[in-house]
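Explain this fold:

***
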Amino acid sequence: MGRGHFGFGSYHYKYESGHEGDAPLAGLSNRVAQISLYVYQEIDDKENLFSQLGKVKTAKACIYIKKLEDINIDVLKKIITTSIKTIQKIYS
């Protein structure tokens, strides 16, 4: 990952286009305005779990957290665990 990014675990991916590489199972970037957490979620899980997380913004594979006290840590743990299990299932 780039400067200021931290990754935990790794997996190798290869797309139908032929593009391939290595990526972390979960990634984190601590920026000035927010913490960015990089995860993978199936659409159903994303909608259900992300809605229970608390005060965050989300993108396709990102959760943007301004303050840790604004989120439900137990839900965050579940999101990270689900993300890792899904990646391992898809790319093993």
The two ends are 21 Å apart (CA to CA). The chain has a mean pLDDT of 88.
